[in-house]
Design a protein that fits this description.
By secondary structure, the protein is an alpha/beta fold. The protein has 2 domains: 127 residues, Periplasmic binding protein-like II (D-Maltodextrin-Binding Protein, domain 2, 3-Layer(aba) Sandwich); 93 residues, D-Maltodextrin-Binding Protein, domain 2. It has 12 helices and 10 strands. Strands 2-1-3-10-4 form a 5-stranded mixed β-sheet. β1, α2 and β2 form a beta-alpha-beta unit. The longest helix has 31 residues. It is globular and about 55 Å long. It starts with a helix and ends in a 6-residue tail after the last helix.
Length: 273
């Protein structure tokens, strides 16, 4: 009886110790993760493989779902134009968005957690006679189409700025209107990235266009965090979730749902700004 009592006593202390360790781990995890004391907001925008409202699928949607799962926080996800997203991030009325790229103006009100990179290209009509970017700029009859509030890689941005000053740029709220303008020959070029590839496979686009490189290095994209809405400590914790998704292979698996494995791997190799 004494041996059985001692065994039960040991088991009791073991269970208490195990429960204590589990509580410590949970407390540590809670301290390390984001503060979920309030609900958050995240804005998605429609753009090629990043997100489609019609299918409710896309790279940004998958990343958002994983961030929500890992954080344990309540996050309200909304669809809105990209220009509106930047306005709300700056004002602090929106906490997050995805696939953002930086510039000096945005650095003043937004922080970024980088997770992917890509290059930008000039998509031109074949009948425009463009074999390099300089050809497009030299011909003052050619019009460029861009998405409102979008910025691209350095050489692409410089071209956009010069053509804007020359009144040779048309703006639209998304890709679809630009493709329509391109097919109608109302613009002769637009800037694209790998997220836009599926549309380029459509015969009506492929038959009339060609792609010209800007020869810029890949541009990092990341989680956009409002500096006004989130403290530096909280931004660091959300950034840690993104870093974990990169290091444990989650980000690669998400990209491989939409791209070839070799392209997905290339998009994860970049130097952060």
């Amino acid at each position: 009886m004494s041996a059985q009592f001692n065994a039960l006593l040991k088991m009791k202390y073991f269970c208490r110790a195990l429960l204590f360790m589990l509580c410590l781990q949970c407390a540590a995890a809670g301290a390390a993760g984001p503060d979920c004391g309030r609900s958050f907001t995240l804005g998605l925008h429609e753009h090629g493989l990043l997100y489609s409202a019609e299918t409710d699928r896309g790279i940004d949607k998958d990343i958002a779902d994983e961030l929500i799962r890992r954080s344990g926080c309540k996050v309200t996800v909304s669809l809105m134009p990209r220009a509106r997203i930047w306005q709300l991030i700056e004002s602090g009325a929106l906490d997050f968005s995805l696939s953002g790229i930086t510039n000096p103006a945005r650095e003043r009100f937004a922080a970024f957690a980088w997770y992917v990179s890509n290059k930008y290209y000039l998509l031109t009509r074949k009948d425009a006679g463009v074999s390099q970017v300089a050809d497009f700029e030299r011909n003052d009859k050619l019009q460029l189409g861009v998405i409102r509030s979008f910025r691209y890689s350095p050489n692409a941005n410089q071209m956009v700025d010069r053509l804007t000053a020359a009144d040779r740029v048309s703006q639209a709220g998304g890709l679809s209107p630009l493709y329509e303008l391109l097919l109608a020959n109302k613009i002769q070029g637009m800037i694209i990235e790998p997220f836009d590839y599926p549309v380029l496979e459509e015969k009506k686009i492929r038959d009339v266009t060609s792609i010209v490189e800007f020869n810029d290095p890949p541009v990092p994209h990341g989680l956009i965090m409002s500096k006004k809405a989130l403290s530096p400590e909280q931004r660091e914790k959300w950034s840690a979730l993104v870093s974990a998704m990169r290091s444990d292979g989650t980000m690669r698996r998400i990209l491989e749902r939409y791209f070839r494995a070799d392209l997905a791997a290339t998009m994860l190799e970049f130097q952060a700004p």
